[in-house]
Amino acid sequence: MPSAPSGGVNTIDEHTSIKGNIQAGGDIRIDGKLDGDLVCKAKLIIGERGSITGDVDCQNAMIEGTFSGTIIVRDLLTLKDTARVKGNVRASKMAVGSGCLIDGQCTITGDKDPAAGFAKSSNGSMNGTAEHEKHKSNGAAVKA
Question: Computed from CA positions of residues 103, 107, 56, 44, in that sequence, does the dihedral angle turn out positive or negative?
Fold first, then answer.
């Protein structure tokens, strides 16, 4: 497993709202609102009051708040009980809390690259090719 870049944690606090795209070389925590795409070379944390609307590509992620868009997690995605996810989820591994809600497509790839099969559309967003489903977690970990 590749080591994460060194450095501090970037934090967007709950009183901050950003419209635009972010590239983070280290960990990033979103407690506010991001309306745009995020590329994170390390770990993304969306706090319980945080939200992202856009596409995300990161190494690891923990979602406690709200996410809407397409998320690609190259290693472990953890969805806490308070997570609300709408859109496409692609991850190598995923752990799901009993109260989280997922409205969309989930693909767990195991050792395969989770970005495989996804391509950027002409407007820059990531697109998959499967039918959407609604899920409510029963607390079991999801594994491919």
Answer: positive
